[in-house]
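Thread: Newbie trying to understand structure tokens

Hi all, I'm a second-year student working on a class project, and my supervisor (Dr. K.) asked me to get a predicted structure for one chain before our next meeting. I've only ever worked with sequences, so writing a 3D structure as a token string is new to me. If someone could post the tokens and maybe explain what I'm looking at, I'd be very grateful. Here's the chain:
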Amino acid sequence: MDFSFQDLSGTFSMADIAIALSLSFVLSAGIGWVYRFTHRNVSYSQSYVQTLVILGMLIALIMLVVGSNIARAFALVGALSVVRFRNAIKETRDVGFIFLVMGVGMAVGTRFYTLGIVAAVAISLIIVVMYRFNWFALDVQRQVVKVQVPADEDHTAGLQDVLIRFTSEFELVSMESIRGGALTEIMYTVRLKKGEEPGRLIAALSERTAGQKVTVLTGYDQTDL
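---
Reply by user tm_fold:
Sure, no problem. This is what the structure looks like when written as tokens:
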């Protein structure tokens, strides 16, 4: 009986492994620096950027393992299907960076090195240009107003009177019962009139809330709520 060991790694060499992992690391790290440089909001996560680098290298490794073997591909899908990710993605662009490092890792892992390099550099430059010139920005500054009022009576009319005085436009976003039904939290998106200050709006709303909390968030389109 033959008990000899058969090497299954004959489809790629040690040089292929070194090039794929090294190149995927360099490109993924570059994408991570682009993400860090172009990040605007307050939800920056160092672990997320490190995960981008690890993910790019892992995808390259997976593509080396799978190669052109369909059976391995299906086995890999079955193995990965048991993994569950429950972390919420706060920004839409974060998903784009995940797909970017995955695409680059796939290109490098399948030994399309030039494609991986060109794609990573070109897409990263586009991201930097969009950040630098602030493409597609909506030049309208809005605020979020959150007001807590007692739930025993309807304060909506009084709040809207104040909003009409201080804002050029406003829109009711949500109403929520809090603290066991004792309070109602009302949220509006507003656009302050020219020359008006958030502090004056808070003071006027506080007169209609029976001493309850009033919050005005400015620049909420650049801040994570």
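A couple of things are worth pointing out once you decode it. The longest helix spans residues 14-38. The CA atoms of residues 22 and 41 lie 31 Å apart. Feel free to ask follow-ups in this thread.
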